[in-house]
Automatic annotation (TrEMBL):
<feature type="region of interest" description="Disordered">
    <location>
        <begin position="63"/>
        <end position="84"/>
    </location>
</feature>
<protein>
    <recommendedName>
        <fullName>Secreted protein</fullName>
    </recommendedName>
</protein>
<keyword id="KW-0732">Signal</keyword>
<feature type="compositionally biased region" description="Low complexity">
    <location>
        <begin position="65"/>
        <end position="83"/>
    </location>
</feature>
<feature type="signal peptide">
    <location>
        <begin position="1"/>
        <end position="18"/>
    </location>
</feature>
Length: 378
């Protein structure tokens, strides 16, 4: 569902401060109709009967209220039971990327400058804003699920099985909401994990490659296997520092959380700005790299300030190495001097912890790279 969530963020997140107009019941209905007409245009433009499309994708349920899928009054069509019967799943799903791109473009236009823009501070006006958000989420979400490949359901179980096949604890499998050690909690567990890491990642990559929609599943949990493998190699290269880091990073400080919060907010605002201003990839990475490097410095300083006896110079420098391993290659060119300064500076400043913080580093690096790829910023 991360695709749907990020899509809605891009559509709605940057336009909540404009002046709302036509905030009447009729105005809200008109906005819904405008949105549905745009969706209708995107769908019918691919030669697909719109009402039959809604009927199949929603399973006969309204995208809002569980009754009639055309409740928002899309343009009148001649859809019929016959039209639905002649509409195959392949015909609906083949142009999915084109339809999604069309809906994104149309919705961005609607929410930039129209009676459908809401004011953040006014809850009443926001009713209209979020009603439209829910309507769009229902349509896009149901469409995405309808077209999903069956491997979406089994992929994570298949990947966990790779741990069992290598005599490793499946609970070590990394997901964005997991907690616990990354490669083990004891010297024995860490040694076993590192010895089996190559065969483990061979199995994980095979599971990923066998599923044609693995990118959807893995992005939803913030997991990039290649980045994960790089991170694990850093940890396995210094097992004593990793084990000591478990005590250092078992709890966050307000300063650490502040650095994370700043990075999240900055990244999200930047992605929205990149889309609305049609940044080139070069412009995008110019901003991205600045955010990443600023966060590394903020994060390392915050952990050093914790003053925990387990946060030794060796432990903290392991975290620096992990951070620097995950810096996108584009930053090596555009910010080479800063990268060199951040990644070679010695002293108390970094380490790796339990999985929650380790995942945070991997996840944001992954999202930054994927956002440039998926939204074609050029």
């Amino acid at each position: 569902r991360v695709f749907v969530v990020l899509l809605l963020l891009l559509l709605f997140g940057g336009h909540v401060r404009g002046q709302a107009r036509n905030d009447t019941g009729q105005g809200r209905v008109e906005c819904q109709q405008v949105l549905m007409k745009e969706v209708y245009t995107c769908v019918s433009g691919q030669g697909i009967d719109f009402n039959a499309f809604l009927e199949m994708v929603s399973g006969g349920k309204d995208t809002q209220n569980g009754t009639n899928p055309a409740a928002a009054s899309p343009p009148a069509t001649t859809a019929s039971t016959t039209g639905e019967a002649n509409l195959s799943k392949e015909k609906i799903c083949s142009p999915r990327q084109e339809i999604m791109a069309c809906i994104v473009k149309a919705a961005q236009s609607i929410f930039k400058d129209s009676p459908c823009v809401a004011v953040k501070e006014d809850a009443t006006l926001n009713d209209q804003h979020f009603l439209l958000k829910e309507q769009l989420e229902a349509i896009i979400g149901q469409y995405d699920v309808f077209c999903a490949h069956p491997c979406r359901i089994s992929l994570l179980d298949d990947m966990r099985a790779c741990y069992s096949k290598n005599d490793l604890d499946p609970q070590l499998f990394m997901t964005a909401d997991s907690s616990g050690p990354v490669i083990g909690a004891t010297a024995y567990e860490v040694e076993e994990f590192c010895q089996h890491s190559e065969s483990l990642y061979t199995c994980l990559r095979q599971s990923r490659d066998d599923c044609q929609e693995s990118h959807v599943v893995l992005s939803s949990i913030g997991l990039d296997l290649d980045l994960m493998n790089k991170g694990v190699q850093v940890l396995c290269a210094d097992k004593p520092a990793y084990l000591q880091s478990l005590g250092c990073f078992d709890s966050h400080t307000k300063e650490v959380e502040h650095c994370q919060s700043i990075k999240y907010r900055t990244i999200l605002a930047m992605v929205i700005k990149a889309r609305t201003q049609s940044w080139t990839e070069e412009q995008y990475y110019q901003e991205v790299c600045g955010v990443i490097l600023s966060h590394i410095q903020c994060d390392l300083t915050a952990w050093e300030a914790k003053g925990d006896e387990d946060c030794t110079e060796t432990t903290l420098n392991l975290k620096r190495k992990l951070h620097c391993t995950l810096i996108p290659k584009q930053c090596q060119t555009s910010h080479n001097a800063t990268v060199a300064e951040v990644c070679t500076m010695q002293g108390r400043s970094t380490g790796v912890k339990v999985i929650q913080h380790w995942v945070f580093v991997i996840l944001l690096s992954f999202l930054l790279v994927r956002s440039a790829e998926e939204y074609s910023l050029n």
